[in-house]
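Hi L., both proteins are below.
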Amino acid sequence: MNTPAPEDDLSLAAIRQQYQRLLQRLEANEHEFRRLARSVWRVQEDERRRLARELHDGIGQNLTALKHRLVQVGHDRDGAQLDPEQRAHLEAALTLCDDTLQDTRQLSRLLRPPVLDDLGLEPALRWLARSQGEASGLSIEVEVEPLPELDNDLQTLLFRIAQEALNNVARHASAREVLLRLVARGPHLQLQVVDDGDGCEADKAFGSGGSGLGGMRERLRLHGGRLELHSSPGNGTRLRAVVPLDSPG
């Protein structure tokens, strides 16, 4: 058996050190990438919050004032006997104003629902299920077990995952009933969205990157979490998002 020459031992030690340095550099780069990506994500959410407030407080209030002016015009003109054509134009203007005001408020809530900032994640999830159910005809049950205190990032992350998942069910699953469930298990949070729809081949769905799955998976990865999809054709779908309570910085 040949004994390694001293210079060979030195070479192996140098290679190990270089490998360790490269590994540490990769880990530092990954850490920095996640930190920057999460910062960008926060900026996007702040911008959503600003736009939602502008829609609600700016455009929404202007539309409300316009509606009141139109109503007042109708009252003022009653003494002058509006003819049928004028009455029809006024009623059409009021209907358009009402529809636009409703669309503006809905868009504001979808951008950043005030209930998420004012009351927290559980009321926001219940509002989301109720509004999505009314819009899509789905029967959506919500189960939320007692949770520890969550920071804003985690609450926003889980709300966005639930929002995207319910949108997918409404658009693609042909489901009738959905269960939205959020629990804490040990050091992790688990958000599940289970439907009784058409189902799909989970591997192909993940591989295609469609239906927002890629975006959900990347958001979770930035917080040290993961996305699971359990489904088969004809047997519904169970989407599960798992994220640590103490997300890596």
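That was the first. Here is the second:
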Amino acid sequence: MTATDSSPIEAPQFSITRVFNAPRELVWRAWTEEAELAQWLHPFGVSTESVSIDVRVGGRYRYTMTNNETGEEFPTGGEYLEVEPIDRLVFTWGEPDAPIDGAPVITLTLIPQGERTELVFHLRGYEGKAGDGFVYDGWDEALTNFGRHLAGELD
């Protein structure tokens, strides 16, 4: 007799939660407007150029990050899967023209806290933890840049 395990396989994933001193409308705009994304969408030591976005279900986005010391470029992109203005944004994350099947998925949830906003960043498809020097730390730094952008410290 053969036993079959029918339990779902859990994908690697992690979440980062931050509270920003900005209303959800400003947080949403900073994630959905090209000029704003170019200001903060990168980890430390990297800059973002050539941002293009089409924020609608099925719309695609792409941007290229450049390492400020080496000049190495990192083209990145994906497709928007859910767009619920000022509440929730879901998109794939990876190579700019990669198929969406099996791609890592980022879910942003914006929760109002008076004039502040709690942002829950969830990435399914990568395992990560603080200090990994890879995906978790890169997004953690990008979210630090995001907060500095909202505070007017990067403009």
